[in-house]
Amino acid sequence: MPALMTTMNAAPTKPARMVKARASLKLSMPTLPTLKKKAPPPPPPPAVGPKEIGTALAVTGAGLAASTALINAHVIDAPIAAYLNTVGVPIISAANLPELAIKWLHGANMGIVLTAMGGYGTYLGWQIRSGNGENETLTGDLVRELHPKLMGAMALFFFLGGQGGLVFMLIQDKPLLESPHAITAFAGLGLLAANGVLGKTMKSDETKRTLHALLGSSLMAVFGVHAALGLNLGLSL
């Protein structure tokens, strides 16, 4: 009798088959994918007004004025000529280039660099400012990654190519650093270097970022004038 009462009071046990079915049901339930929240759009860049444009133009004007003073002082003519006569002239003379190449090779090379690297690099810079820096370019780089690469490569090619242009002037027995083309060359390189430093140090400072964008466009205009002056110089030789 006590055993019967114990059996009656005990909690009913679920059949083993039902427990297994429920466990299997739990295991086979698909997990719903978690929906990713879209990142909020980047805030629009601050408006560019007359003050910001005036600052960029003032910096560009200061660069041109400093370059003009340097060229007109003629303090670097002799050292540059000595350096190029030692390093560049023997190499180019040994190459025995045709007259057409001596006259136009520098301009053709620099024109390609200005258009391909400088033009596209400037476009990418404004894309970054518009909030598209995370977009992918044709090279696989992000816009914000390719912009400094292109502008840095352009600066290097301009620095080396400028020396080539001076070597060609020496080979043709033409005076160095006595033309507006030389003034815009030194001004453009100086502004390009200054803007590169600004780009490295500006971080999230919107005032500096605005100046970097405007100064970049301004110095590209200087290089455009430089190219036109170079064409005129080449035609006059």
Automatic annotation (TrEMBL):
Keywords on this record? Membrane, Transmembrane, Transmembrane helix
Q: Name one GO cellular component term.
A: membrane
What InterPro entries does the record tag this protein with?
DUF4079
Q: Name one Pfam family in it.
A: DUF4079
Transmembrane regions listed in the UniProt entry = 150-171, 183-199, 211-235
Q: Indicate whether Transmembrane appears among the record's keywords.
A: yes
Keyword RNA-binding applies: no
Tell me the protein's name. Cytochrome b561 domain-containing protein
